[in-house]
Protein 1
Amino acid sequence: MADETPERVPFEAEWTHDLQHCSDPNRVVGGRGAFTAGQAQPMARRELRSAGRPPATGVQTERPPVRFSHDPSKEPSYYDVPMLKSPPWKWEIAWYFFLGGLSSGAYTVGRMAERFGGKEYAEISRTSAYTAMATFVPCPPLLIHDLGDPKRFHHMLRVLKPTSPMSLGTWAIMGYSGALTAEVARQWVLAHVPPKKRGALLRAGTATAEAIHDVPGIPLALTVAGYTGVLLSTSANPLWSKNKWLGPLFSASAIATGAAATSLALSMFGKRGGREESHAALEHIDTAAHIAEAVCLGGFLKEAGEKGNSLTKGSMKGHTAVMAGGLLASELLKLIPFRGTLRRITMMFSTILSLVSGFALRWAMVHAGHEAANDPRTNRLSSRRADV
Amino acid sequence: MTFKLPIVGDGVAAQLLERTREMAVEVIGDLPNAFPPRWTEVPQPADHGGDARQIMGFFTDTTLCIGCKACEVACKQWNQLPAEGMNFTGYSYDNTARLSATTWRHVAFKEKIGEDDAAGISRWLMMSDVCKHCQSAPCQHACPTGAIIYNEFGDVYVQGDICNGCGYCVVACPFGVIERSDHVAGIPADGHAHKCTLCYDRQAEGMTPACAKSCPTASIQFGSVDDLRAKARQRVNELRERGNDKAYLYGCDSVGDYGPLNSFFLLEDHPNEYNLPENPPQPFDGQGKRYAASLAVGAGLAMVAAMIFGGGGRRGR
């Protein structure tokens, strides 16, 4: 039997060209060298954003404007699978927002009392320093516990990245904790070392410390109070994203809870429950902050519009009601013209309501964010083009 | 028969000590990573060595996708990503549903049954979804540890040895791509953020990413983004000439006020049909104003406090 070699198709055969209609676009020729063509010039950071715009070839490749119905059942969607990932932040973060805000608010109020009120309000500055410390101590553990890999908490400190609110916040917390510790130490010295026993060194030290507490201390405290809101608003979450009222809302709430907590601590641990004037001053600060808070909440909900539904209509609506109701009730309690002990008791209730309101705000805001991210319709809404 | 209480068994104290020692060693071993604190610029492709490399990316042409899921499998295999269990979603042939910490390529299936055309023609939408490798990536801006960088190929890369799982990138991504791996199929995982690396390891050796390599129809194309963008525009032109006027590019140019994407798509329907945002928000725009507003409210209230304390003092005197 003769070997029959199969007839070879000549490579040049005309029909083979049709088979080669699609050369492999992914074939990398020349290995490593293929990437080092050197064509791409490094782009400046500013240029990056405008890069990739269509060349002036007249080729219209942009998406044609798509009109679609606002009827939810007819909206284009992918089986209503949420577009975004749910935030991994849970109860730890809500507690941190509350306690960190309270601490920085109390610190600010205390510093203002000492700087502008003098010796008359010494009890406020002392109580607020201790309150700030007591509420600040749980914060770092809460933040570390929230991390996916808590052992690496110190990686936060390997860079300083002002573009990231979390990085900025981390460093603000570091600075603030230093200022706060020094403030508490100074208050302790003031309370426990009589003026006659203070040496020249201690006197000079406390004067310097006072300046440090105000100049970097107060701005750092205000950053700690407000950066949390900015952090949330610097996200893609439909509820929080780019809402300019969120930072101010958290700042105002921080001052309100700070003043309320100081007042509460004063009536619980202060000498004879604190002076009437001290409580009156703290009440007024609380009221001012509550007004700011109410305005910011209104602005927030107005700007969020339908995207705020998770806050007002979702499972967090009870918390939002507690927040707004607590605000209102605490103000109404202040208006009751009681005197003496009865007044003291109503004021304590008022401060407690203020604190509850502040906590409900943080809890609702964090958890409503989860709901907003898991709601496909809100996802689509937050990324809709303004012109369609 | 002897019973032993499990809690007070032998060596519990020793075990605890050993665990503590292990943790201490790990933290101390990590310290050189963290200290000293340093300022970081956003790394640019040019920062890596003298030779400026081309920015590499993906062009995913959904008109060519046949939904074989070879990319999904190739990605899992190369990157050694675990399965996420067997779930039947009921979403056509898509039982993956979304990208996750352990799914970096996801093929979306959409059956359009006679709803678009008066003639009642049914058609498929299939798209292989992936990290968009934004040129101005919110996850990269957000990362407080400097774990997320741009590598020398201009792609967004998460450094696994740096990430501590803060979760900010998850919240920042407007495409819902990156995820923290708290649990994989119910089993506790490392807690770090994970997403497509654009096969950094393969690219470094001059190879094509696994998904593009395995794509049998050239729906996923890999190359220098400049080439890909030109190719993509040509492709749209071609399709339009053939009468497919639905084809358009998503992310080739800026999407609204969002910068261009290094991995972009040719789509045939509204972006929401593919679970893509119509106009992804760039959350880092206007950050300064929001800081200013919140600090102003704080400072204003501090001033009110100052006035109250100051005024009260005068009244008292």
Protein 2
Amino acid sequence: MTSLAQLTLLLVVLTDFAVLATSRLSACIRAIAFQGLLLGILPLLVHADVSVHAVGLAAGTAIIKAGILPWFLRRAIREAAVRREVEPLVGYMASTLLGSAALAIAFAVAHALPLHLVETDLLVPVALVTVMIGLIILITRTKAVTQVVGYLMLENGIYLFGLTQSERVPFLVEIGVLLDVFVGVFIMGIVVFHINREFDSISAARLTALRE
Amino acid sequence: MPNDTTSAVIALAITLIGAPIIPGLAARTKAMMTGRRGSPIWQLYADLAKLGRRGVVYSTVTTWVFRLAPIVVLVATCVAASLVPLDGRKALLRFSGDAIAFAYLLALGRFATVLAALDTGSSFEGMGASREVTFASVVEPGVFVGLATLGVIARDSSLSVMLGGTALRTASAATAPSLVMVAMSLFALVLAECARVPVDDPATHLELTMVHEVMILDTSGPDLAMMLYANALKLGVFSAIIVDVLIAAPRAAGWVGAATGIAILLGGFAVVGIGIGIVESVMARLRLPKVPLYIAGGGALALFGLILVLR
């Protein structure tokens, strides 16, 4: 693995922590978009041979993860007029500590996994930590948009894990990209659903107050 | 051929003389980025000279603790500086475990400042002291994790071996990522340690928001000069550590190596000074409850570096 790939993987971990520690939603989305861009570049760096297939995969990933999905999320926060995560279930400080613990666990566990790793020794722990931090965000945040960001991060981790296998099973990675499209639909559904429900519940509360 | 002691003394002297340029560089960078002319780079020298000529006023409620504090701070910082291999070769003082002594000397200086602040009996200074201690309790673990990372790479607990030895230089291909993490973490923590912008604003004089400045409100004259100088010196020492961590090229023996070391040291002053100026220009001071999170983030970077080395 080249040092450029290593650097990219480290930046992926840093974006994980950036999302974990920021309360501002637009900053979260910017971080996850940057992570998407990094993931787009990674396949080209990890595998030495640059084929049409690899370039296509990289371009597709970058366009979906760094372009379309962040654009969609930005639209969602603009329309819902939410700016920051107000009440996370676990505080930012505790989340950062949890994230650090996840980092330690990921690096400890990565070596115990029965994988035939040739040159991707940083790839597996980074994939694991991205999955775990994604899970932490998914569990501890209350805003729908942040949860979607957490889900995206979880999916990014799975994509990274797929990269370790992609030379043998390129199909897996393609499935990953397809999953992205699914996520896009998922975001649409969840955001619209949550916002609708939020506004409905507010108006419902008002209605009951009027009645009493 | 200069031996280790001579070159260490020269490097220490240059740090002692040159450190006050760093806050000046930071202020100048900030002024230039905001379109002002700004104060001269050697402003702190002028301030120190002015304060040195003035008399001291002691509040009647203060005791010897208050009078002792500036001396303790200055001496502790100077000794800490002499433990660090400033030119990337050998430090003036070196023994096994001096990295821990280094961290605790800085902590001793902070302890003296806090005691002096409490000794004045002013509620504002007490508030500043409580904030300083709160932040320090998060900064110190981060610094320790960073030093531990260097220690694991060098397999030694002396700063001279960690930063001046060959361990960092030879293993650079495998350890480069974690060294970068440690350097980033140290830069983030220095801003907290030396009371710079995301944590504390040296330019503000509103008691409610000050942290470090409020603790030395009652300090005056030469005492204040000592406090300000010690803070600048701390910046100088940390910038030396940061460039030592980042620049992996081994320092040659002889005069050429010594000169290179000094040049790198001065370059480090410039980089850190300008870096602080840029940070101060592009971001505002964080809200107080956010500060521990920022510092913990800096510590997490160092922890990441440690994990990368240990794996």
